[in-house]
Design goal:
Elements (H helix, E strand, L loop, with lengths): L1 E7 L3 H13 L7 E7 L4 H7 L6 E4 L6 H10 L5 E6 L2 E3 L2 H15 L4 E3 L10 E2 L4 E3 L20 E4 L2 H5 L8 H14 L4 E4 L4 E3 L6 H7 L10 H17 L17
Parallel strand pairs: 1-2, 1-4, 2-3, 6-10
Antiparallel strand pairs: 4-9, 5-11, 6-9, 7-8, 8-10
Helix pairs in contact: 1-2, 6-8
Length: 259
């Protein structure tokens, strides 16, 4: 069975569209469960989502942040595989068609995670199957993207992935938690693959939680130029070099969530 884990916070109409799109797919003989982990949304939003066709709904009594919300959802998934997405992603019709190939890659050990969406293209990839490629652990061609092998865009893994490589660091702001886990995965021997043609699209109506809370005020022309990208790449490669699996701390990125 595939557990489709969706994290949610105060965007019930967006969640409804995501679930509706998933339910409309022709899953056929593939058993699925839809698991929604809600991070203490407002009462009006909770009343709304309780009426949606959700197999398992977990509502946190207090807001703990995205990483904690993902961890809670993972622990409530029953399937052998977990397909993760946030509520502001919509699956494409080809998703179900590609699943047998994706599962074969996971079960064979060719990859430990298959990413289904990204906001960028890796210049250097290694072919695994017709529709799936492996992201190299390090490549000069991927210099600007080496540390983005993982992101919290939609992906699929065996549930055992998190027991092997660790759950998410809790009590963090969205950007800190995502970057910390990305560095952790890069530091590990986890093999991350990505589909050639992305299988999810972003809901254009929705605004990313991370973007809304942390990045909106930082969008400047300076961030779009190559110098910024180079400095960011150097900084994150240094984070990789000094990262400790035990301490789980980033040196140059501030955790803006108050513990």
């Amino acid at each position: 069975m595939i557990s489709i884990l969706i994290t949610h916070y105060n965007r019930p109409e967006v969640l409804e569209k995501c679930i509706s799109s998933l339910r409309k797919l022709a899953w056929g003989s593939i058993p699925i469960e839809i698991v929604v982990s809600d991070d203490a949304s407002k009462e009006i939003a909770q009343r709304f989502i309780k009426k949606l066709p959700i197999d398992k709904l977990i509502i946190s009594p207090v807001n703990k942040g995205l990483t904690s919300n993902i961890n809670t959802g993972i622990r409530n998934c029953s399937g052998k595989y977990i397909l993760y997405c946030q509520e502001d992603f919509i699956p494409k019709m080809e998703l179900v068609e590609r699943l047998p190939e994706i599962i074969k890659v996971l079960d064979s050990g060719m990859a430990d995670m298959v990413r289904l969406k990204a906001n960028y293209k890796f210049p250097k990839l290694l072919k695994l199957t017709e529709n799936i490629k492996l992201i190299p652990k390090f490549s000069w061609q991927n210099f600007y993207l080496n540390t983005f092998q993982y992101s919290d865009h939609p992906f699929i893994v065996n549930k055992s992935f998190f027991n092997t490589y660790g759950y998410y660091l809790e009590n963090t702001s969205g950007a800190y938690g995502e970057n910390e886990y990305a560095i952790r995965i890069m530091k590990s021997n986890a093999r991350i693959a990505i589909v050639n043609s992305y299988l999810f699209t972003s809901n254009s109506v929705a605004v990313s939680v991370i973007e809304k809370t942390e990045f909106r005020k930082k969008r400047t022309l300076f961030k779009k130029i190559k110098l910024y990208k180079f400095i960011r790449a150097v900084r994150l490669h240094l984070e990789y070099l000094f990262y400790s699996n035990k301490k789980r701390r980033l040196l140059s990125i501030r955790n803006k969530r108050k513990i």
